[in-house]
Amino acid sequence: GQSLEQPSEVTAVEGAIVQINCTYQTSGFYGLSWYQQHDGGAPTFLSYNGLDGLEETGRFSSFLSRSDSYGYLLLQELQMKDSASYFCAVSKAAGNKLTFGGGTRVLVKP
Amino acid sequence: GAVVSQHPSRVICKSGTSVKIECRSLDFQATTMFWYRQFPKQSLMLMATSNEGSKATYEQGVEKDKFLINHASLTLSTLTVTSAHPEDSSFYICSAWTPASGNTIYFGEGSWLTVV
């Protein structure tokens, strides 16, 4: 089976940096994706890591260590609009089904 | 970016009736479509994977006779919830993938189903 662990909730102030960790146990691994979901909305793709290292996309960065079965999403220069749930998800192949973590609810305060 | 559209966005139906939700890839041909269900404040749970022209592959515990999935074309997949009950009330989300999209899977806007 597969399981992904991530913190349930994080609170931070505007302008701060938040790191959301994700550890996984899977029977097969191809890549780790991150999705953002606002309340009542659909998930939107943020980032993908297939190889070890850091991927940077604007204010968001994602990191993967395959040997540690661990990754994280880094949110920098937090803005109020970043208040949302963030999910890590693993896949076993390109285009393969995603298995999602429980989600981390990020609350950004003024 | 690629666009995946779902319809309806919200639907209310009576217990015992059936409801169909459509998922369309608007600007690409989706080789594979996925259907997820999400209860409030919970994660997305995969229900089934469908490839165009073939039968859907259901996840363990998902009743295939209750949740009928059809992927008749490369741009359309449908999920029919048959004999709906209040416990089927949930947020249903589809996603789509094509080889050209690489490692990105695109999600639809989701459909809220309320069974009364």
Description:
- Chain A is mainly beta.
- Chain A has strands at residues 3-5, 9-13, 18-25, 31-37, 44-49, 53-57, 60-65, 70-75, 84-91, 98-100, 104-109.
- In chain A, the strands form two sheets. In chain A, strands 2, 4, 5, 9, 10 and 11 form a six-stranded mixed sheet that branches. A five-stranded antiparallel sheet of chain A has the order 1-3-8-7-6, with no helix packed on it.
- By secondary structure, chain B is mainly beta.
- Chain B is built from no helices and eleven strands.
- In chain B, strands 2, 4, 5, 6, 9, 10 and 11 form a seven-stranded mixed sheet that branches.
- In chain B, strand 9 and strand 10 (106-107) form a beta hairpin.
- The mean pLDDT of chain B is 93.
- Chains A and B meet through strand 4, strand 5 and strand 10 of A and strand 5, strand 9 and strand 10 of B.
Helices and strands, with pairings:
The complex is a heterodimer of chains A (110) and B (116).
Chain A: E1 3-5, E2 9-13, E3 18-25, E4 31-37, E5 44-49, E6 53-57, E7 60-65, E8 70-75, E9 84-91, E10 98-100, E11 104-109
Chain B: E1 4-7, E2 10-13, E3 19-25, E4 32-38, E5 44-51, E6 57-58, E7 67-73, E8 76-81, E9 90-97, E10 106-107, E11 111-115
Parallel strand pairs in B: 2-11
Antiparallel strand pairs in B: 1-3, 3-8, 4-5, 4-9, 5-6, 7-8, 9-10, 9-11
